[in-house]
Amino acid sequence: QITMAMDQVSNGATTQTSSVEHGALLLCNVIEGIQHVANSSSSIANASTYTHEKAEDGGKLVGRTVNQMHLIAESVSQSDAVIQALNDKSKQIGDILEVIQNIADQTNLLALNAAIEAARAGEHGRGFAIVADEVRKLAEQSSASSSEIGKLIGEIQKDMSKTVNAMSNVNEEVQSGLVIANETKTNFGEILTSTNEIATQIESMVETANGMSKGANEVSISVGEIAMIAQNNATSTQNIATSAEEQLASMEEISSAAGTLSQMAEELQVLIERFKV
């Protein structure tokens, strides 16, 4: 029974050693997995940092674009104001030309009347007729020039009107561009916020994975020590079992010798009884 018990203890120690070694192997696989997660997290963290930097660069570019768009919008607004002022001035010039045209017409009419009166005066009105004729010519020239200037002003006003409409369209496009640029700037800001949050989470994951890896390594060392102790226990148990078997064999020999001595004592007692008779 002692030998059987020692064999059971020895087998149990061997089984325990195998289980511990198997657990150590599984733990090594777990450590490799954790290290892989840590390495992957580090790679993701690097990619996130790169993305964050690019988002920052993009945000700065968009910011500069927004500022430039504001400058363009301001320039367009100023140009529109100048063109509108020129358009108003051209209208004023047109009004002045109309007055000049009326004056020229009146002057021409007065020159005609003066020529008629000079003709009635005969020889005495000849000099006055010459002056009236020159005035009439000047009035006609003024009227013709005013008419030409009026045509030019009309063409300028048409061009001004087209320019005003074009500048209005440009201003609308610039304002639309500003809205889009501001939305893009806002989106980049949200991207930066998201990448910051992701970077923080990834850093936490890396720290956690590294901590788990460190803890798993410590556990692996402890399991290795336990496996060594279990192996030593198994060896010691086997040695004890061997010693117990040897002692059991010795005890059996002693028991056999004791039986022989007992038998010899009984035989000796019989002989002694014979000598007494």
From TrEMBL:
One of its GO terms (cellular component) is plasma membrane. InterPro entries: MCPsignal_dom. It is found in: Cell membrane. The keyword NADP does not apply. Pfam families: MCPsignal. One of its GO terms (biological process) is chemotaxis. Coiled coil: none annotated. Gene3D superfamilies: Methyl-accepting chemotaxis protein. The keyword Amino-acid biosynthesis does not apply. It is a multi-pass membrane protein. Residues 1-227 form the Methyl-accepting transducer domain. Keywords: Cell membrane, Chemotaxis, Membrane, Methylation, Transducer, Transmembrane, Transmembrane helix. SMART domains: MA. Belongs to the methyl-accepting chemotaxis (MCP) protein family. Chemotactic-signal transducers respond to changes in the concentration of attractants and repellents in the environment, transduce a signal from the outside to the inside of the cell, and facilitate sensory adaptation through the variation of the level of methylation. This is Chemotaxis protein.
